[in-house]
Structures are given as C-alpha cells and as structure tokens.
Known about the structure:
Elements: H1 2-13, E1 50-59, E2 62-64, E3 67-69, E4 75-78, E5 81-83, E6 93-99, E7 108-114, E8 118-120, E9 122-126, E10 131-134, E11 137-140, E12 146-147, E13 163-167, E14 176-177, E15 180-184, E16 190-195, E17 197-200, E18 205-208, E19 211-214, E20 219-221, E21 233-240, E22 248-256, E23 268-280, E24 283-286, E25 289-292, E26 298-300, E27 314-321, E28 327-334, E29 340-345, E30 348-350, E31 353-356, E32 359-362, E33 369-372, E34 391-398, E35 406-414, E36 420-432, E37 435-438, E38 441-444, E39 451-454, E40 462-464, H2 466-472, E41 478-487, E42 490-499
Amino acid sequence: MFNRLKNICAFLLAITLVSACGGGGGGGGGGGITPPPPPPTGGITRTGVAIAVGPITGFGSVIVNGIRYDTANATFTRDGAAAIQSDLAVGQFVVVTGTIDDDNSNAVATSVEFDDVVEGPVWSVDSGAGSFVVLGQTVLVGPDTSVDDNCPADLNGLLAVAAVEVSGPVMADGSIAATRYECKSILGEMEVTGVVNNINAGAMTFEINALTVDFSGAAVDNFPSGAISDGDPVEAKGVSGGAGAGDELIATRVEFKGARFADDEGDHIEIEGFITDFVSATDFAVSGVPVTTDGNTIYEPAGFSASDLGPNLKIEAEGEFNSAGVLLATKIDFKQANNLRVTGLVDSVNGDSLIILDITIATDLLLTRFEDKTNADVDPLRIADIFAGDYVEVRGQEFPADSGTLAAVILEREDPRPETELRGFVEVGGVARPTLTVLGVIIMTDDLITEYFDGRGSNDDLPMTPDDFWAAVAEGSLVDADGTETSVNTMFADELELED
C-alpha cells in the first residue's frame, strides 16, 4: 500500500500531464474557489485511505481543498527531499495522503509532498498577457497566484532573477496556471515536469513543450519499459542550460512520473485542477487523473450540472477510485473566477469579515489564503491578526451574486502605501461620466488628471483618450482603478484601465 500511494503521489505531483495527449482548446478556466462554507459530503464510504491534491490555503496543520489535515505525525518532502512544515508556503500545490471521516472531519495526514512544476531561468515575459516562460514552459499569472516576497512586483523584473520556481496545475495546452512562484538568487539545479514529445533516440533528446532536453548523460529511472518514450510523463533535472529560447536542458536525471490506479479501489481522493482530457461528462480527466460521473454526482455551486463540464475548466472532483482505477466523482465543484480585487486600509474588522472602502470582505479560515508580507511576518496569519488601519490586498469573487460582498480567496497584509486599488465590474446604472460605480464604490475621475488605459485582449496598458475610454466602458465592464480613497465609499482614480 505504501509504495502504491507513493506512486500515486508521484503521478499527481507531476500534475500527471496526460494533458498533452488530448483535451480541447478553449479559454482558460478562471481560477478561484467556491465561497465558504462547503457543505458536508456525508455518505462516502471510506477505506481509511484519502488523498488530497491542491494548493495550500493555510497552516496550523495544513489546509488543502477546504479541509484541515492534522500533520502532527506526518512526514514532509519538498522536491523529493525530506522537509518540515515550515519549508512550505501558501499557494504551493501539494499532495496530502492520510485518512478522513465520512463527513470530512477528523482528517489526519501521514505525508505532505510538494514538487514544483518547473524551476529555472525566465526566458521571456509577456506582461500584457500576464505570463512568462521558464525553460520553455508558459506560466500564467492571475488572481489565484501567490508571489514570494523575494520576487519583483513587476513581471518584467523576472528577467533579472537567477531562477524562478513555479507551482500549480497544468492546463490542456501544457501551460501552468501558477498558484505560487518564488524567486531564487542563485541558479542551481534546474528541473521541469512534463510530457515527452519528439523523442530522438539517436541524438538522445526529447522535448517538453518548447524545451529540448538532452539526456545523453542522464540517469534514467523508473521507466516501465526501461526506455523513454513519447507521451511519458517525466521529471528532468539538469545543471546547465540558458536563459533564452532554443537553449537546451542538459539532463543529469530523467525520472518517470506515471502510475496506474488499478489496485486503488476504494481510496478517497479530492483533486483540484483543470479538465485536461474531455470526451464526455462521464469520461474526462482532471490534471490527468481519470474521472467519471453518474446520476448521484452532486454539482456545486447551485445551478451547475454535468452539461457544464468541458475542457480547460477548473474544478475540484471528489470521490473514490473504482475497480478500474477511475475516480467516480460524488461531487464536482466548479471553481469560479476571482476577478475582484481591493487594496487599501482596513476600516474595521468584525468577526470573520473586514471593511475596506465600505465593501464587506468575507474570509474563511479554511478557504481564504492568508499571507503576511509586512516586517511582522506573522505566520500563520489569521483574521484575528488583522486590525483597522492595516493595509491589505484582497482578491476574490462577489458572493452571493450582486450582494456587494467580496468572498476573499487571497488576503495579503502589506506595508502601508498611499495607493488604493479597486478592480471589479461596473454596476447596472454605474456609468455616469465622470464617475463609475463598482461594488458600491463611487470612482471619481478628472479628464485633466486621470490617465486612461486599455488592457483588453493583447493590449498592454495601451493609453486611451478620455473620450475613447468613456465610449468603451459600459455596465458589466471589468475595470481597474488606482488612486486615493477620499471618503467611506469614494475614491479618486489617478489611473483607470479597461480589462478583459
């Protein structure tokens, strides 16, 4: 059982990456989590083995997928080496193995494993698209991305960083939806996890997306056939390479990262990720793990159904492996886009909620990713550590819909700055030049002072004339305002940008 679970974890840590073998195109799933609290999922028959795959949202034990796992007797590994819990950080995509009761209580971890998807120098940056390329792997940065304090605030600054370590699930096209990235001051051993393509046995090379891997001098481990083949999920590590497209990774080790589930019947799993291979609502994969549904599958939030499933959607699937090694989902949770953001001074804190700009921000200890980026460096940060006057950035979604309440997915406390930022959708009746209304906040402008920008599509902060901006903005438009809070629910925008 132990070896089998280790194989499962290795398979999942590699994000399995069967995605390269299929899966349709389509827009990227919007990241995010369904706001708290999740209902119990009673009725699931446990066999004593449970696996959770997803980003860490908090500590005090380890919280993954809205469940707190007791780690008092757990072992920890980071990139295959022994570690301790303090070596991990919120946002890192991990695999937790252990046990859990039928009602999702009494969760106890026996192991917690973290493995990055790619670590190496940044080849290029596309700040307009919110992405960068590391060792030929495209990394998408969005509202669900936590960024280490050692990283520059601007993506273009990553070009001057020695190396970046990226964690997160992989989409159907092989791009990585980063849940966290960290910056390194020294370029050490580089590594990349992905699917082998275009193997050249004579030259002893293969490709992982845009990276060529030379394995002529590498140790080749754990391949069932004894040799590397196209379609194999692998992890390649090397000590040389470059910081530009066309450079190779000279591998010192290539390890097979696949596994099968034929003997895992009854094991419980909760996995968050993208639908990478979609045939039908009863035949698809989440981050490469095969999933099926039946008439008893529950879909959340309310209003979603099997007909909403499709490639590249971000979901959480929960259930048990059947005799064929396929996850029979008892619940599918559609992850909602976290397009909203507010940054500013906290006006007040009331229980699990806080107020900024008269916006109520709801937090949840199990689902909100708290992180302290001030010199106080409180770890783990809790809502009880947040006070009026603190400067915070909150990212999340409006829940319930049209309520004006922001359900916080990420809350970061930062060193105070004079700027206030609000990103959200223009309300019905909210366009009244020279003002916009977003989440109940009145955004004031002055065409002689306010700078207008277009960030839609491939545009990268393209300047707009005031008239062009006001002709384009409408009810439902996503806008990002940077400026100064002037009263309880009013701010003046020095900069105002249209977003996708």
